[in-house]
User: Fold this.
Amino acid sequence: MNSHSHIRALIAAFALIALAAAVPAHAVGEGRILGTILDAAGVPVADAQVLLSRQGSSFKQEKKSDGKGTFTMLILDATKEYLIHIEKAGFQPLEEPVKAKIGDTFRVTYTLQPAVQAVAAGPQALTGENQAVLAYNEAVTKLQAQDKAGAIAKFEEAATLNPKLPDAQIVLAELYLDQGKHAEALAAAERYLALQPNAPRGLSVQYDAYTALGDAAKADVALEALIAADPGHDSAVRLLNKGVNFFNAAKIDQAIQVFERVLQVDPTLAKTHYMLGLSYANSGDNVKAKEHLGKFLELAPNDENAATAKEMLDYIETKK
Assistant:
């Protein structure tokens, strides 16, 4: 077996070992949950906090998703319904009921939506006494009280009363995106961009909405506009996710082109070096694979993928 094939086999072996460890034999009456956590672009979310609980009971079980976005939960009494709560910085929390299968593994995928910038930063009240501004300020108060439904209604009222109020349009766009209303988010983002051309907040929502709606061509245009308007971490992360999608589809040459560009947009994003290391290893370029895996370990020695990077580096060293 040549070194190229061996590294492919090595990567596959990690997945097989993880899967084998995740599905042990069941005891009578118990069940298991095998969950996968993805972001809106379908990329695995690592290190998400997962809490399983049961109403009216002190039962609690906590886990973290691994590098592939997966986690397992052992359920001793699979006849009951449980509540799963998932959190990760940069995403909106997710909570929903879940019921395991007795004597079997229940496989489920959870998709986390990006955090809403308006909620995180807190939209500011506007000055003035016209009806649109009054409605907007009422919406801000409701949003601060975590009444998102009431806030959306008031932001919509403000936007109707004054369609040229950009603050209302962008907050609506972000709230719609948070709720998975991607078409509505896109429409609001485009109204905002008509008022504030090339504004990064609008372009971010536009890209995320097009991606969620499956319109890759328009998403690419929005991403290019975002990179031009605001080169930096947020643009780089979205570009990195695009490269990961190429990598997962075995389009290695395209993935490499995207990852190399990510480094130009944000050289500090350590995960880019890890993905370049994997990509160059898959393409047979062990010199560049070693360079990027080493840089990844230098920037992020405690990352969940550090052990894999070290093992691949050790193997490359033996092939000199």
